[in-house]
Design brief:
By secondary structure, the chain is of the alpha+beta class. Helices cover 20% and strands 26% of the residues. The longest helix is centred in the middle third of the chain and has 12 residues.
Length: 114
């Protein structure tokens, strides 16, 4: 059986999705419960999830990651552009104001604790 491909679709590619620019929103800090888990050395580590708004590209992710990584006590930072998910791992619970200041230093972004 032969496959049929409409001639009108040959050589066409779907339009690229345009990045959505987020408007700056005022998020109130929420109380969150960090999760504790042992690291490779058996030390108890804290993992806290946040949502960062305003990021539109990989450079945004890099700037946020760099600034949050510089916060004293932060062991690891994982930032995902899609959905704005940020997971911060530290030896102890971190002050939300320090995370918020680091994200603001990175650019026109806002952060909320999940």
């Amino acid at each position: 059986m032969e496959s049929y491909i409409p001639l009108s679709s040959i050589g066409r590619t779907p339009p690229l999705a345009q990045p959505q620019h987020h408007q700056r929103q005022n998020h109130q800090p929420q109380h969150h419960q960090p999760q504790h888990h042992p690291d490779q050395n058996g030390s108890d580590m804290t993992t806290t999830e946040y949502t960062v708004t305003g990021m539109t590209c990989g450079h945004c992710v890099a700037h946020v990651t760099e600034e949050v990584q510089a916060v004293p006590g932060v062991a690891d930072v994982q930032v995902t552009l899609e959905g704005g998910r940020m997971v911060v791992t530290s030896a102890d619970a971190l002050d939300f104001a320090a995370i918020e200041a680091a994200v603001a230093e990175a650019g026109e972004y806002t952060v909320a604790a999940n």
